[in-house]
Automatic annotation (TrEMBL):
GO terms for molecular function: copper ion binding; oxidoreductase activity. This is Plastocyanin-like domain-containing protein. The keyword Glycoprotein applies. Belongs to the multicopper oxidase family. Residues 1-63, 144-285 form the Plastocyanin-like domain.
Length: 314
């Protein structure tokens, strides 16, 4: 399999016999039919799970002679192999034109980091029920949508900005439940560290953006780990896996205004609180950055009977 694209980005075209595709991820590959004419299996199997599930497809040559071998090769063992494969993924810098903004620039490694946010996932029971959390807070949906409350200037009645620390404590012994909203400064270049303190593999997605997946390593993150970042040709993508007792680092510019979801791609974890939102507001109140709410939009919650405010963006 020749890898040619990953989540919207052209990649250096390396050849692979096996690819680890984590939850929420998407790869495009080219397969060259240059083998002896017969039938061949394509195998997809689960990894990093207690129960293995296998599915097979068949590539069939015209006028092929012979069935595929009934003996399927085993998948690679352990997740260290998967970490090493991640490090082979590179952005193809000759396939697409760079854009002048940092989000699409090939020079992302020379941009100063203005904020570092570390997100540590944990699992706890709250009132006897399982909840998943980030930095000690498990997300719950408010009765008033976050963006609606922000638009009506009553955010303080619905949620608090930056209600989790950028650097979580070494030990998280309890979990609280509330909406989580990070107040992001428009066009700041931000470093986000996903720290997996559990024994289950994680996968995260960021709505509204692509980011540079610059590093995955075992152990705990520290500022000294930045020397191991790929600051030249990390793939621009929108999901990242985090291995057990490991961390993953991404870099991005928050230049797209709105209220954007950062979430676990493992759906039961997202449903039980392993997610948050990043609020990015246009400082110039310009329609070039963000549209106003449509006139016919439905409202609910604390703003249901409030007069509609004047459009913030012109």
């Amino acid at each position: 399999m020749k890898l040619v694209e990953m989540e919207g980005s052209h990649t250096v075209q390396n050849d692979y016999e096996t690819l680890d595709v984590h939850v929420g991820q998407c790869f495009s590959v080219l397969v060259t039919a240059n083998q002896e004419p017969k039938d061949y299996f394509v195998v997809a199997s689960t990894r990093f799970t207690k129960r293995e599930v296998i599915a097979t497809g068949v590539i069939r040559y015209n006028n092929g002679k012979g069935a595929p071998s009934p003996k399927l090769p085993p998948p690679p063992v352990g997740w260290a192999w998967s970490v090493n494969q991640f490090r082979t993924f590179r952005w193809n810098l000759t396939a697409s034109a760079a854009r002048p903004n940092p989000q699409g620039s090939y020079k992302y490694g020379s941009i100063n980091i203005t904020r570092t946010i570390k997100l540590a996932n944990t699992a706890h029971k709250v009132d006897g029920k399982l909840r998943y959390a980030l930095n000690g807070v498990s997300y719950v949906e408010p009765t008033t949508p976050l963006k609606l409350a922000e638009y009506y200037n009553v955010a303080e009645k619905v949620f608090k900005y930056d209600n989790i620390p950028d650097d979580p404590p070494a030990e998280i012994t309890k979990v609280t439940m509330e909406p989580i909203v990070l107040n992001m400064t428009h066009r700041n270049f931000v470093e986000i560290i996903f720290e997996n303190r559990e024994t289950a593999i994680q996968s995260y997605h960021l709505d509204g953006y692509s980011f540079f997946a610059v590093a995955i390593e075992t152990g705990n993150w520290s500022p000294e780990k930045r020397k191991n970042y790929n600051l030249l040709d990390a793939v621009s993508r929108h999901t990242i896996q985090v291995y057990p007792k490991s961390w993953a680092a991404i870099l991005l510019t928050f230049d797209n205004c709105g209220m954007w979801n950062i979430r676990s791609e493992v759906w039961d974890r997202r449903y039980l609180g392993q997610q948050l939102y990043a609020s990015v507001v246009s400082p110039n109140k310009s329609l070039k950055d963000e549209y106003n709410m449509p006139d016919g939009a439905l409202v609910c919650g604390v703003v249901e009977n409030m007069p509609k405010p004047p459009p913030p963006c012109t």
